[in-house]
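Journal club side-thread
Mid-discussion, someone asked how the predicted structure for our own chain would compare to the paper's figures. Pasting it here so we can look after the session.
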Amino acid sequence: MNSVDPTIFLILLQDGIVNGAIYALLALSLVLVFAVTRVVLIPQGEFVAYGALTYATLGAGRVPGSVFLLCALGIAACGYGFWAERRTLDLSATLRLLGETILLPAAVLVLTLWLAPQRAGIAVEAFLALLIVAPMAPYLYRIAFQPMAEASVLVLLIAAVGVHLAMVGLGLVFFGPEGSRGDAFSGATYTLGALTVPGQALWIVGATLLIMAALALFFGLTLRGKALRATAVNRLGARLVGIPTAQSGRLAFALAGCIGALSGVLIAPLTTVYYDSGFLIGLKGFVAAIVGGLVSYPAALVAALAVGIGESFSSFYASAFKEVIVFGAIVPVLLARSLLAAPEAEEE
């Protein structure tokens, strides 16, 4: 067995915390989406991969194919919106739908065609990558999940798997089989004793803490945030008091898309990302969300850090079994829950 001296221990702990920060963001978005819509968002990892690869493509001075996917999804979402709301659409609702689904992707496309060849800089490229990838999530909700919002969790899960497979295939088409890396936000390194901390790692941890604080303020202080919390607690009750659950679902997906795209942009400088890399990343966030019961944000956060640290130390002690150890950790949690859960009466 490999031995770990204090320096190696600190390095592994640092890597685990950085990875756990990304998994925490994904776990929080998974819990949010499931609580509001009952959708297990399997494609969350694809938003990470798309964000990283779009950012890397912009950094290379090329127009990413994902911007054309954004336009196609916007057109499809517009078509569904007109069909689903054809009896209630007025002028203001029509203009809002056109603005959200047609004008926004068109503006992003024009901006991308203009800025991509100019190599406008890291900040602009990162922001543009977010503009391209984040709106895909609410469009996907309109197209794939809103029509079956009242279906069972199993049906929604099957739909999520289908969306995941489609996005992986489209990722291969748009980005190719080769992996890519993006430019680091900061080339600085900081020395803490024997430990060297890259600036990008601090960006990841700092962004994670900032997003968590922003989400806490959003849920606690804003009307939309309180509406999301009400929808998560009781979807039917929220609808009865006038909260539009379809809009809550789109907002939850929009937040998940922003978090996934930002996570991809943050990790792009640290690791090579491929078109199918999002599946494993998202799956580790899913493990953390499951440990949190898909309902508890603090539990999901703690579980995500545990997954990241466990993965880091597993790669040192038994690298060949790293993934087995990480994903196997979910088994005792599920077993304990099945043994401790109170029996429920079967529905008539």
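Post-session note: The mean pLDDT is 83.
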